[in-house]
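Step 1: inspect the first sequence and its tokens.
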Amino acid sequence: MEWAQESGDDVMAAYVLFRKSNQATAQRNAQKAVSLARAAQRSVGATRRIRALAAQQEAQGHALMGNPRFAEAKFDEAHELAAVPDDSHADEALDLAYCTPTYIEMQRANCLIDFGDPRTAVGMFEAELRSLPPIYRNDQGVYLSRLARAYAVSGEPEQAAAAAGRALSIAIDTESARTMSELSAAGKALQRWHAIPEVAMFTGRLTLMSTANPLDR
């Protein structure tokens, strides 16, 4: 942030604010996530894609606060921004090509699990996984992990264990700490069905992976 300010790079300053909001969300600091996301959206250097990313980050902050109405409104705003091509090229160096309407909807789907609508989340994750190019292995692992949690919250432990098992195989191949974090949440959602063979098999693999080869990336 200091380097961006010193060099007058307003686009980078706006991007850093968005990323700081992202970190606050990961730390479950909802108020900080919302305030930083709003600052990113107000920033003079915020391109359309940065505003879209910051808007969905604000939505996640509202979701952490348990406020679905505000969250849905910001997801809608982010989706609208992401759907319009940004021809300014001001943020090309940041590689924000992933900021698409589909990406926004995947973030919304994850929040829908906690909003009490896991079945809709299941449908959204399944649809994205069918169209996701194989090259995006890390994203596939993350979405499968979230799909597993959605299935678990929906009361479908066998389907959850199957999705989680596929995600764990990807995490082992890619050494993705992000996927492992999502799998940990899926594992917690599956705890009540620990006696089901498919769940027990996944839980055993997850425990073995976590203790024998902890991921640090």
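Step 2: inspect the second sequence and its tokens, then contrast the two.
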Amino acid sequence: MSEPASISSGIAARYATAVFEIARDNNKLSELESNVDSLTTALAESDDLRDLLSSPIYSRADQEAAITAIAKKMDLIQVLQNVLGLMAQKRRLFVVPQMLHRLDELIAEHRGEVTAEVQSAQALSSEQSKALAETLKSSVGKDVKIKATVDESLIGGLIVKVGSKMIDTSIRSKLNSLQNAMKEVG
């Protein structure tokens, strides 16, 4: 990991830990989880929000006013609203995506869950997601939360990442392996 990236993840981890501990102590973890999901979705869907978090052209006051208004409109829990405002004052909004990711991890850890990042060529049905979660639970030993994305370039199959483990059963991967083997022969 590069030095600026590790500094950013360290900043994000400290904010996430503070928010998580306050929410846990106030019995607001389920609301926090919902807020994290909503904010993650909003970031994924809004270019303007991503721009607000990362662009240096906005003043601290403008960033704080905008993020505070957004947090209130989204009805985020008070601790999350406060932290977002503080991050704007300190010019730290650029780490919000990393903070949300770390919050997700902390909440899952608290529940005894692990998150599996799954890429598939087509969207998984709810039955397929449940079956995959059960299969992974038997091998991991913890409840598994599936975070699915679609990557049509896989052609078929799945790429599953759980922690530091990765299982790649995609057809693209198999074709690449076959192509490499054929290069070695010829």
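Step 3: confirm your contrast with the notes below.
Helices lie at 3-25, 29-45, 47-54, 60-73, 78-89, 96-111, 126-140, 171-185. The chain has two domains: 3-109, 114-185.
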